[in-house]
Amino acid sequence: SDFQLEKRFVHKLGHTVWIYLSVIAVRDEKGRYLYDIGQHQDITNLKLAEAQLRVSEQRFRHYAEASADWFWEMDASLRVTYISESVRRLAGAPPQWHYGKSRRELLGGEYDHNIWDAHLATLDAHLPFRNFEYLRAGDDTVRPAWIRTSGIPIFNEDGTFVGYRGSA
Q1: Which residues, including other chains, have CB under 8 Å from residue 78's CB and lie 6 or more apart?
Q2: What is the pLDDT tens value at each position of the chain, 168 positions in all?
Q3: How far apart are CA 40 and CA 75, in angstroms?
Q4: Looking at the chain, which runs of residues are DSSP E strands?
Q5: Measured between alpha carbons, how far is residue 121 from residues 60, 74, 112, 115, 117 in Å?
Q6: Within 13 Å and on the Cβ side, how many CA atoms surround 41?
Q7: Of 29, 80, 96, 114, which is the most exposed, with the fewest CB atoms less than 10 Å away?
C-alpha cells in the first residue's frame, strides 16, 4: 500500500538527519500489484527551521506575557483582528470586545477632532505612528480607558497594504 514517512536517523558521524519517504504501489488495470515507486528526500533543514520557528514563537509568547503592554493588529480596513490577552489585565476589556471594531468605534464620547483627523490621515497614508493617546469608549461590560498606542503599517510581498501591528 501507499505510504509516507518522516524518519529521524543518526548519521555515522553523529549528527541527526531527517528523511521523508513516499512510496506508491503501482497496479495494473485489474488492481493487481506490479511494483512500488518511491522517493526519499533529506528534510533535515526543514526540520531545523521548524524547530527554530517553534523557539521563536515561544520567545515571542513569553515577551508578550511579560510585557507591560498588549499587542494588536488591524486589517486593511483598520478593524481590530487581534489583540493579546494582556489587554484584559491592563485595560479591563477582553480581547473579543475589540474584534471587528474600527479605530473610530474605539473612541470615547468626547475627543479632539483635529487630533483624530490627523491620526486617521496618518493611518490612511499607511504611515507609522508613536504614542497616540485617546480615551477608549466603553459600554455596559467594559469601562472607558485612556490608551497610548504605537503602530507600524504592514505590507505583503507585492507591496499591498494589509494592516497595522502595534502595542498599547
Answers
A1: 102, 103, 123, 163, 164
A2: 789 999 999 999 999 999 999 999 999 999 999 999 999 999 999 999 999 999 999 998 888 777 778 899 999 999 999 998 888 887 788 899 899 998 878 776 667 788 888 999 999 999 999 999 888 777 777 777 788 999 999 999 999 999 999 999
A3: 41
A4: 3-10, 16-27, 33-42, 71-75, 80-83, 129-136, 145-155, 161-167
A5: 31, 16, 14, 10, 6
A6: 10
A7: 29
Cell of 112: 479632539
Measure the CA–CA gap between 54 and 84, rounded to whole angstroms: 19
Give 94's contacts (C-beta < 8 A, 6+ positions apart).
87, 88, 142
In angstroms, the CA 72 to CA 168 distance is: 8
Residue with cell 488495470: 29
